[in-house]
């Protein structure tokens, strides 16, 4: 079969433009359908671990304190530190995913509109007590400011042929049993005024 694109052949020409456009449109439609199927399949995979969250005005919720990992929250560093404050009341729904909250007076300097991923539902319990001071929460990143109060003990530890000085820190607003061992270098960098 001779090439239909050759210009040097003599004879009757067949106009293939409309046919080629039709074939191309069919292939584009098939590709769009396959992409749509793949998108819905991936969406169903992703939505298995997601849940739709909706709150009504008047509901009470917990507010996430520190979105960043590794931040010292309420004097506890790591997994056991509290990640939410509250409960606080929802005043109204701004859009589908953001809510205006009635923050306590200690947090009046914080903007009171939050995305739904920062909120967790609260079920009323008569014995629930707030056990952390709200006045020491930083407005910038909603993390708790914890200051060292005293050095209770010093110790040198050998780690891989290095001697690393450690200090036992008593944190402000915490009992002595909650004192933690920290490297002297980390305390010196975080609180330069504390260690001379």
From TrEMBL:
Record domain Chromo: where: 147-195
Lineage top rank: taxon: Eukaryota
Coiled-coil ranges from the UniProt annotation: none
Matching SUPFAM superfamilies: Chromo domain-like (SSF54160)
Domain Tf2-1-like SH3-like: 58-122
InterPro entries from the UniProt entry: Chromo-like_dom_sf, Chromo_domain, SH3_Tf2-1
A Pfam entry, by short name: Chromo
Name under which the protein is recorded: Chromo domain-containing protein
């Amino acid at each position: 079969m001779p090439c239909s694109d050759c210009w040097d052949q003599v004879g009757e020409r067949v106009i293939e433009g409309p046919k080629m456009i039709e074939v191309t449109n069919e292939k584009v439609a098939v590709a769009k359908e396959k992409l749509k199927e793949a998108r819905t399949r991936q969406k169903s995979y992703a939505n298995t671990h997601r849940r739709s969250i909706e709150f009504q005005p008047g509901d009470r919720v917990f507010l996430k304190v520190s979105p960043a990992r590794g931040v010292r929250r309420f004097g506890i560093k790591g997994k056991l530190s509290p990640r939410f404050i509250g409960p606080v009341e929802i005043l109204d729904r701004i859009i589908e995913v953001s809510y205006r909250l009635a923050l306590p007076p200690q947090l009046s300097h914080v903007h009171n509109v939050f995305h739904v991923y920062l909120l967790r539902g609260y079920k009323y319990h008569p014995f629930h007590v707030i056990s952390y001071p709200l006045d020491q929460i930083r407005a910038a990143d909603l993390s708790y400011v914890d200051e060292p109060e005293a050095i209770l003990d010093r110790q040198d530890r050998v780690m891989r042929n290095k001697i690393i000085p450690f200090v036992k820190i008593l944190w402000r607003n915490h009992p002595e049993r909650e004192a933690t061992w920290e490297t002297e270098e980390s305390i010196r960098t975080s609180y330069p005024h504390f260690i001379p």
